[in-house]
Amino acid sequence: MDHSKHNFQPYKPHPWHGIEPATNHAGTVRAFIEVTQYDRIKFEVDPDTGYLCVDRPQRNSSLPPVPYGFIPKTLCGSKTGNQVREGVEGDGDALDICVLCEHEITRSEVVLNARIVGGFLTFDSGMADPKLIAVLDGDLLWGNIQDLSDVPPRLIDRLEHYFRQYKVERGRENPVEIEGRCDRKKAMQLLEASLEDYTKQFA
């Protein structure tokens, strides 16, 4: 389903279109959490109504290692796709974000401030679907991390493994491809491109 072509209903609270993505701190964005590390169901915001809906059961025993959601008022369109690989289109969804935090976040549909430190250059069915990695703003354990190289490699490996496996189905080709990882500078370029894609689509 091409989410970017659906008309949202502006009189309803809508986390994709009704929350400002920027904060007062450079490099820090607002993130809407759809899935926690305890969810065996993949939840996703419905693009028309803004309600959190069941997308599918998790396809295997691997669960997301950290809270996972998206940055409001972003869109993975052509500019974002070109940041991942020249000539590739984005998947038409909001820009995904994973948030590292010391304390457990046990419920979804929460909004938090997160500081971007890097990301994965990811494709889904041949379309760009990058995943940004961030730390919870003000977190006592992760708060001093500045770039992806500061994050323990084992945690990044777990995140990458989750995204490599989360859409695997028996007898079908895996639609997900991870081309590599990126540092904070590249992740910020992805963010800026997705903000421009959103403005072009919805302004």
From TrEMBL:
Q: What lineage is on file?
A: Bacteria, Pseudomonadati, Verrucomicrobiota, Opitutia, Puniceicoccales
Q: Which InterPro entries match?
A: Pyrophosphatase, Pyrophosphatase_sf
Cofactor(s) annotated in UniProt: Mg(2+)
- Indicate the enzyme's highest-level EC class: hydrolase
- Record the organism: Coraliomargarita sinensis
Q: Does the keyword Membrane apply?
A: no
This chain belongs to the protein called: inorganic diphosphatase
Which SUPFAM superfamilies is this protein grouped with? Inorganic pyrophosphatase
Q: Name the UniProt key words of this record, in alphabetical order.
A: Hydrolase, Magnesium, Metal-binding
Q: Which GO terms describe its molecular function?
A: inorganic diphosphate phosphatase activity; magnesium ion binding
Record's superkingdom? Bacteria
GO CC, alphabetical: cytoplasm
Q: Which GO terms describe its biological process?
A: phosphate-containing compound metabolic process
Provide the E.C. number(s) assigned to this enzyme: 3.6.1.1
Keyword Magnesium set for record: yes
